[in-house]
Amino acid sequence: MMLRQQPAPRTSRSLHVLIVEDNADGRETLCALVEILGHEVEGAADGVQGVEKALAWRPEVALIDIGLPRLDGHQVARQLRAAFGRDVFLIAHTAYDQPEDRRRAFAAGFDAYLVKPADLSELDHWLTVAAAADGGTDA
């Protein structure tokens, strides 16, 4: 069976994207995919490192796993929302997919919710939304 590779969708502009994921393979794969979409990417292996990198780097988007060590994704989202207000677009990226999981994520401050493994076109959609929410100016 031969698979045809589709061209990757493109967002309207390049963003600074922080990926907070404790699974090293998952983090590296997401970083590569987001870079292919044309964005600058930093990765963090746990919640504490994610908050530290965000405070130092000031990403426009943070893609955050919920089940993280040291600080879970909800705590990371709350801290980033407190630090940056609406200047950061928060995307939950998690294997948890129950209505209560989504409710808790949005209550913690997430703007979007992606279930693992995220579809590339869905991820690109939310990055495009984030770019538009920021007024569409280049970084």
Largest sheet: 5 strands, parallel
Multimer state: single chain
Bin the strand percentage.
15-25%
H and E order: EHEHEHEHEH
Shape: globular
CATH architectural name: 3-Layer(aba) Sandwich
Category from helices, strands and their pairing: alpha/beta
- Mean pLDDT, to the nearest integer, reads 89
CATH class: Alpha Beta
CATH homology-level superfamily: Response regulator
Distance between the termini: 42 Å
The CATH topology is what?
Answer: Rossmann fold
Question: What low-confidence regions span 5 or more consecutive residues with pLDDT below 50?
Answer: 1-11, 135-139
Description:
Helix content is 43%, strand content 17%. Helix 2 packs parallel to helix 3. With 139 residues, it is an alpha/beta fold. It has a single domain, classed as Response regulator (Rossmann fold), CATH 3.40.50.2300. It starts with 15 loop residues before the first strand and ends in a 6-residue tail after the last helix. The N terminus and C terminus are likely disordered. It has a five-stranded parallel β-sheet, with helices on both faces. The protein is globular, with a radius of gyration of 14 Å.
Furnish the topology, listing elements before pairings.
Blueprint: E1 16-20, H1 24-36, E2 40-44, H2 47-57, E3 61-64, H3 73-84, E4 89-94, H4 99-108, E5 112-115, H5 120-133
Parallel strand pairs: 1-2, 1-3, 3-4, 4-5
Helix pairs in contact: 2-3
